[in-house]
């Protein structure tokens, strides 16, 4: 794979090398770690929603609700310890000591405060020019009762890579009664409500993901598939609506 140009972006903790190279179409995967119990998070939630509306092609927005704010009196209904562990794994990789909210991780390779619109624009521009190692397609998606079955096809090298399947709730409005955001009505979007990971053995495969009970009739759901290497870099992404 030939490198033709390099540039640096200053996203905060570390500079990230961005290469325009041969490969597949660029992706920008924005994983926001947030909480309804965090007073500085609603502005980041709003920025992520704005990005989703303005950048529909090649940009994938995910909102992971962590559980370490729950102790102050409000249990975020979307929070899971699993999502806190995902965040910790990223920060260990990125050599950042500890977790914080709101935090955005981009393609598993850079992070910054999730409400920082300037750094968000830098990330969208920089990673939006970087071709990636893989491409993935979703097909034969079926929703039956509380399960979703689907098939996928991965292009490019698959050695030592995983597929992360992420079930996303489009939006939900919550009246927060306690904690730092008490008496506020919060709109969350791109909410991760389920996730599975499977090792890629062959370029094509099929899998199942369960729909959690918190999903209501009429909720808009999306399935996002991510290809991830052993370094937790994201090398492909695809999305489909389940409505």
Features:
243 residues; alpha+beta; Immunoglobulin-like; four-stranded mixed β-sheet; four-stranded antiparallel β-sheet; 16% helix; 46% strand; disordered N terminus
Structure in a nutshell:
The chain is an alpha+beta fold and 243 residues long. The protein has one domain: Immunoglobulins (Immunoglobulin-like).
Could you characterize the architecture of this molecule?
It is a single chain. The chain has 243 residues and is α+β, with helices and mostly antiparallel strands. It has one domain (16-241): Immunoglobulins (Immunoglobulin-like). It has helices at 41-54, 81-93, 117-127; strands spanning 3-10, 15-21, 28-34, 59-65, 103-106, 110-113, 135-144, 147-155, 161-176, 184-199, 204-210, 221-229, 234-241. The strands form four sheets. Strands 4-3-5-6 form a four-stranded mixed sheet, with helices on both faces. A hairpin with a 2-residue loop joins strand 7 (135-144) and strand 8 (147-155). Mean pLDDT is 90; it is low at 1-20.
